[in-house]
Every structure is written in structure tokens, then in C-alpha cells.
Specification:
This protein has 2 domains: about 200 residues, Rossmann fold (3-Layer(aba) Sandwich), CATH 3.40.50; about 280 residues, no CATH class. It has 20 helices and 13 strands.
Length: about 500
């Protein structure tokens, strides 16, 4: 309890954390004694200190606002509990702590023993606290899922709990014979009680690298006026692509330290996380090969067979399609991969639409880390840069689409007419987006492709597109092409 003792003096002065007296704060030396008496010892004091410590640890003063802040508020207003999902290091706990009334940190080693004991004997005591109550690393005691669901039913009030934890599911507990222990299983889905919020890595607007002069939401309002300036040049874009949107990377003072975060994440995935998905041992070197191949195929509809062929061409002959599918499925479950599914509009003519997913990592820095590339490497290989920049663009569009109650799809037909991103909102409105790093010729080609697709859509059966946009990596200004009305918008000035 050294940590708690360290904060005891400062804690007495924090009125918002309970206004504990000097005498009460002196009782903060809670020992890890998993007995019936100790399980009941100073529960209120522990919970309050836990909240205080977590707020200190998560550096509220340095917090950069997220698009998901508002989404979390909405979900708390409409659901009894919210499960916040997403990749490791994306800021799930920090996000939740901003709105938490109290916090239980299950990973706190000082209290882990008594918390686990309480979870098995009297879990309702762990659920007691000011709402919304954040249960961080809830998967350490999977019993929380059913307990939260039940407690939400009892209270019949919204905004009671938030659940955050590792992107890696917990290993099921087994007895000596290898049978799964029943009490560790989750018995209920949580439907109607526990809503889900997907948190991605930070967009350029959230990391304050975009000026935010142009609102994606305004484009859906058919705005005729467009003004926006970007401060991102090619060198800066290459750095941002390799740095990624990891909150810790964004806060680093040096570029070298910031760039290291993606490599740390990649190393964690291949050496540990992928093995824990379903309690299946997976080969570290094979994981690396698959992720490198996936990186080389960013922004394409590469099949498992294509990835297999790529791996075989690079030296590994002993593999099958099923093995590739197994590894890709595992990477999706821990939010390393987030492919884009096909958009299926109503067309004027019978054109076969390709339904294969477009391959993307959830953050572009995963691709650069898998390939061992830095900013200068991207600048020296513009073809690879273009593919990986598309991952960055889709990441940002997904974050912004979430705020607009929309999803991002892709389009490709049998004639190879493509659209990199289709932002489709629940109300039926949609925008068509082509992604280009920059340059007048690529921008013109992107505009022509968008116009061709727009002309194919049967507007008697669905809405006309709200806008056509060429989203660029570089470029000083946003503008509307006078000849066709296509928006050209640098990613460095876009926001939700």
C-alpha cells in the first residue's frame, strides 16, 4: 500500500473525492488479507482512493478530447452500462475516467487478491460506488459481466457502469482435468443492458494535427462555401503515418520516442497478444510474416490465397488458406485489423459488385511497424506510401463517421470502378470519397472516378450522394472544383 500512503496527505485536500478526515485518511493502510473481515474493511475509503489514484495516473490535465467523449455521454444516457472496446493503447480507460463517478482498478496489484476474492463471494460490494462506476480491466474477473447485467436490471437506471479492459479476451479458467470452470463463463450477452462503444486510435483532428477548418458534417448539409487550410506537408505526413494515433505517441516530446510506440505495439501483438485470443498457441514468426503481407496489401481486396502466395514467395512454403484465415481472425478479435466491407448501392444497370473486404489495419503505424519502415522510407517509396496513407485516411473517416451515426464502406465493381470510402449514414445520406496523397493528375483521376460512380447510382431508388470528395494527404487549401463541384480537401483540415 505504498502508493496509497504516498497520496494520503494530498488526498485529504481533495474535497471532490470524499472530504475524508485526517483520522480516516490515516486508515488507508489496507493490507492484502483475503479474509471475510478484510474483504469488508474500509470499502468506501478504498474505492475513493482508487478513484483518486486513477485520476492522478491518467493525467487528466493532459487529456486531449476525443470524438468518442460525446458518444460515450450519449450511450450512458441511453444504456445501463457501456462496454468500451478497441485496440490496446488506444486510450479506453483514460476516456472512461473523464466521465467516471468512481473507479475500480482491478489491475491494481495492491488490492488484486481481495478484489478477486470479493468477485467470487460478494461482487455487489465491488459494484457499489458513485455512478457511472468504471470497472477497469473487468476481464480479470469475468463474473463482472453477468453481475453488471443483473445490477442494471435491479437499479433500472441508465448510466450505471462502464467496462474497460484489454483487447485480449481472458483465458478461460480450467480445472486439473482441463475442463473449463463454469463460474468463469459469461452466461448472458448483455443485450438491452450493456451497449458497446468502439474506440479507435486518435484521428488527426483529435491529435491536433488537423486544423479542423472543414467539417464532414457540414458537407452532408450541402454547404456551398468551403474554406480550409492544412499545415501538413509531405515530410510531416510521413511522420504522422508512422507515428499513428496512439495517445502515448501523441504526447511524446520527441519524434523518436513517439515513433517507438507503434513498434512496441507490434512486438506485443506478435509475441503475446495473438496467442491469448482463444488459448491457442500461435507461431511468432508466422504472425510477423502474415502481418508484413497484410501491410503490403493495405487498401486492396487481397484474399487469403493472395496473402498465402505472397508469404510463400517470401520463403515460407508450409502453410494453408485455413491457417491464414485463423491468424487473420485472431488479429481481428484483438482489433489489430479492421477491414472495410463492400457497399451495395442501387445501380441503374446490372453491374456485378465485388464483395471482397478491403484490407486495413486499424492504424497505419501498424503497417509501417510490420514492414520496419520509417518516415524517410515512405518518402522514398511513394507507391507504398500511397497505400498506407489510405489506411490513415480511412481511420480518420471512421472516427468522424462515428460522430455522424455513419459507417465507412468501399465500392468496387467488375469493371474495376472503385471508390475508396463511402460514408453512409443511418438516415440514408452518403458521401463518396477517393483518397490521393496529392498532385493535380491523381486528383483529377479521383474526381472522374467519383463522377462515374455517381452517374451509375439509381437516384429514383436511393438518395443522390451528398457530396463527392477527393481527400488528399498534402495540399495547402480545401476547395470546390468549379467544373464539376467535387470537393478537394486535405486531410490536415478535416474534422467530424
Amino acid at each position: 500500500m505504498a502508493i496509497i500512503s504516498h497520496f494520503s496527505n494530498d488526498f485529504r485536500n481533495q474535497k471532490k473525492f470524499g472530504q475524508l478526515s485526517h483520522q480516516k485518511s490515516a486508515n488507508c493502510r489496507i493490507k492484502n488479507r483475503p479474509t471475510v473481515a478484510s474483504l469488508r474493511y474500509n470499502t468506501f475509503v478504498f474505492n475513493t482512493i482508487n478513484t483518486y489514484f486513477c485520476r492522478k495516473f491518467f493525467a487528466v490535465n493532459n487529456y486531449k478530447k476525443r470524438v468518442a467523449d460525446r458518444l460515450l455521454t450519449y450511450k450512458l444516457e441511453s444504456s445501463g452500462a457501456v462496454l468500451i472496446e478497441g485496440p490496446k493503447y488506444c486510450g479506453k480507460t483514460t476516456l472512461a475516467s473523464q466521465q467516471a463517478g468512481s473507479i475500480l482498478s482491478m489491475a491494481d496489484t495492491d488490492t488484486l487478491g481481495q478484489n478477486l476474492a470479493l468477485a467470487r463471494t460478494n461482487i455487489s460490494r465491488l459494484l457499489a460506488g458513485k455512478t457511472p462506476r468504471l470497472i477497469d480491466e473487468w476481464q480479470i474477473a469475468p463474473q463482472f459481466w453477468d453481475a453488471v447485467r443483473s445490477e442494471v436490471d435491479k437499479r433500472n437506471e441508465d448510466g450505471q457502469f462502464m467496462l474497460t479492459g484489454s483487447a485480449v479476451p481472458p483465458r478461460p479458467k480450467k480445472d486439473e482435468k482441463g475442463n473449463i470452470i463454469e463460474e468463469e463463463n459469461i452466461h448472458h450477452t448483455g443485450t438491452g443492458r450493456i451497449s458497446r462503444l468502439k474506440l479507435r486510435t486518435m484521428s488527426l483532428w483529435e491529435s491536433e494535427d488537423s486544423t479542423g477548418d472543414v467539417s464532414l458534417g457540414d458537407l452532408f448539409s450541402n454547404s456551398d462555401t468551403l474554406e480550409g487550410k492544412s499545415n501538413i506537408d509531405l515530410s510531416r505526413l510521413a511522420y504522422l503515418t508512422c507515428r499513428g494515433g496512439w495517445p502515448k505517441a501523441v504526447l511524446k516530446k520527441s519524434e523518436r520516442a513517439a515513433l517507438a510506440q507503434a513498434f512496441d505495439y507490434y512486438d506485443s501483438v506478435v509475441s503475446n497478444d495473438i496467442k491469448r485470443v482463444d488459448d491457442t498457441e500461435r507461431d511468432e514468426e508466422l504472425t510477423k510474416r502474415i502481418m508484413r503481407s497484410y501491410a503490403r496489401n493495405q487498401g486492396t481486396q487481397a484474399t487469403a490465397g493472395t496473402i498465402l502466395s505472397d508469404i510463400k514467395n517470401n520463403g515460407d512454403k508450409q502453410m494453408s488458406d485455413s491457417t491464414i484465415y485463423n491468424y487473420i481472425k485472431a488479429l481481428k478479435e484483438i482489433f489489430v485489423i479492421e477491414d472495410s466491407i463492400a457497399w451495395n448501392p442501387n445501380l441503374r444497370s446490372k453491374t456485378a459488385i465485388r464483395t471482397s473486404d478491403t484490407r486495413y489495419f486499424i492504424d497505419p503505424s501498424i503497417a509501417t511497424a510490420a514492414l520496419g519502415l520509417g518516415p524517410e522510407d515512405l518518402i522514398n517509396d511513394m507507391e507504398t506510401f500511397g497505400l498506407i496513407f489510405e489506411t490513415l485516411a480511412v481511420r480518420d473517416l471512421r472516427v468522424y463517421a462515428d460522430a455522424l451515426d455513419g459507417k465507412v464502406y468501399h465500392y468496387r465493381d467488375k469493371n474495376n470502378l472503385e471508390c475508396d470510402a463511402v460514408i453512409h449514414r443511418r438516415n440514408g445520406s452518403y458521401g463518396l470519397v477517393e483518397v490521393k496523397i496529392g498532385g493535380s493528375t491523381p486528383i483529377s483521376e479521383g474526381a472522374e472516378s467519383l463522377k462515374e460512380l455517381s452517374a451509375k447510382i439509381d437516384q429514383s431508388r436511393m438518395k443522390a450522394p451528398s457530396f463527392l470528395m477527393v481527400l488528399t494527404g498534402i495540399g495547402d487549401f480545401a476547395y470546390k472544383r468549379p467544373e464539376d463541384g467535387v470537393f478537394v480537401i486535405p486531410i490536415g483540415c478535416l474534422k467530424p
